[in-house]
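User: quick one, sequence for these tokens?
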């Protein structure tokens, strides 16, 4: 609209100059047409200069207004960050004070306080990650008030072993028709306002179909309650540097859930995915190992899952991280496996106890062998090394019947249950 207005103004004073050049000789015959043309040119030039002056002043005024808006937005972000840091400092101080008060208490009390302190460190790291990635302004209509002081909530395990632990939390619809900008706004807003949920999908022992593990996934809700699934936001979050924050939130929620599971003496394990991006992030993984060292008692019920490509191409630093975690008693699982030609001895040596392959990879190998040995021999090799094979994406009974002939250990897929939200207490 501004450009159109300036064009119309330019057309107007150009017409005025033309009228002056043509009308002067006619109204005043004593004026030479060439002199009238010069006067018209002067009118045109003067009008253009005035137009340029006013246009520059208008542009400068708009620029000043925009800069003022950016300053105001930056001040709001700084205030929110300082408030969050103050709240965390207060919380950390309270926990440290509790630790001093309980130094004379039993070992269980001291262990609980240490766990609380380590969780505060995770939350503090999460806020720092958000502070360094929130360069973009908030989405239209987004509120600017401070996020809730409890950014995670407490997860409740409400069912008996062998039954879903997701309670009766309804599954919201999946958001659709979103571009990358809209997805990024939802991810940022979800991390800030505690709209990151934990979804659990059962992993069953075969052939009994008894649930013994759950795989944890993140779901991010928008303001209307619709959710994003990882397939929608992973690429955007990786590009914007938000994956570590999402992994941190997933880890924190898994720790809460496992702790509650153990308090009810339920022997259920949970697979917690750690992305390739976070596995190669030195800052994240250093804090991650420190946090898990404070929570090593969760090792029997918490399995970390990594992409195979990253594990197969790891550097020395990643290998040291894996050895450190394994020394704390944690077990590992590898997923995103698209071939049966793996170095099983290497996986076993580095603490991997589970190998996940999708059903199509297994069945494809049966129908069109690509590995050096048969699927049955590979299964025997996995068994000899004390590892278990989990076949995922089992969606139908005929597909399951084909797989049962291989005596696979565990199955996962929509045939046994879709990912359902864990209920927040």
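Assistant:
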């Amino acid at each position: 609209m501004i450009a159109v207005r300036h064009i119309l103004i330019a057309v107007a004073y150009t017409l005025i100059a033309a009228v002056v050049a043509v009308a002067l000789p006619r109204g005043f015959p004593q004026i030479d047409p060439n002199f009238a043309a010069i006067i018209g040119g002067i009118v045109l030039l003067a009008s253009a200069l005035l137009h340029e002056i006013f246009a520059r002043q208008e542009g400068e005024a708009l620029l000043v207004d925009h800069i003022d808006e950016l300053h105001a937005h930056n001040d709001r972000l700084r205030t929110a960050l300082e408030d969050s840091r103050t709240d965390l400092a207060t919380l950390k101080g309270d926990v440290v004070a509790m630790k001093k008060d309980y130094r004379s208490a039993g070992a269980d009390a001291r262990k609980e306080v240490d766990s609380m302190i380590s969780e505060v460190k995770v939350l503090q790291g999460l806020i720092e990650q958000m502070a360094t990635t929130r360069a973009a302004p908030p989405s239209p209509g987004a509120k600017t008030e401070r996020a809730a002081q409890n950014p995670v909530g407490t997860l409740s395990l409400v069912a008996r072993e062998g039954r879903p632990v997701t309670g009766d939390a309804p599954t919201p619809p999946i958001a659709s028709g979103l571009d990358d900008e809209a997805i990024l706004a939802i991810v940022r807003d979800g991390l800030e306002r505690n709209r990151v949920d934990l979804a659990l999908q059962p992993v069953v022992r075969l052939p009994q179909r008894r649930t013994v593990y759950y795989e944890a996934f993140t779901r991010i809700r928008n303001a209307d309650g619709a959710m994003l699934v990882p397939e929608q936001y992973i690429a955007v979050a990786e590009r914007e540097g938000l994956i570590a924050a999402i992994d941190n939130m997933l880890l924190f929620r898994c720790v809460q859930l496992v702790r509650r599971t153990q308090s009810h003496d339920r022997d259920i394990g949970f697979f917690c995915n750690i992305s390739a991006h976070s596995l190669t992030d030195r800052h994240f993984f250093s804090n991650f190992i420190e946090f898990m060292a404070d929570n090593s008692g969760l090792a029997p019920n918490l399995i970390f899952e990594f992409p195979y490509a990253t594990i197969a191409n790891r550097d020395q630093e990643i290998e040291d991280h894996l050895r450190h975690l394994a020394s704390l008693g944690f077990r590992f699982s590898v997923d995103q496996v698209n071939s049966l030609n793996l170095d099983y001895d290497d996986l076993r040596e580095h603490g991997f106890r589970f190998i996940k392959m999708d059903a199509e990879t297994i069945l494809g190998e049966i129908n069109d062998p690509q590995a050096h040995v048969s699927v049955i021999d590979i299964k025997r090799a996995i068994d000899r090394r004390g590892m278990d094979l989990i076949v995922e994406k089992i969606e139908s009974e005929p597909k399951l019947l084909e797989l049962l002939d291989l005596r696979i250990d565990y199955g996962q897929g929509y045939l046994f249950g879709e990912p359902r939200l864990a209920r927040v207490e």
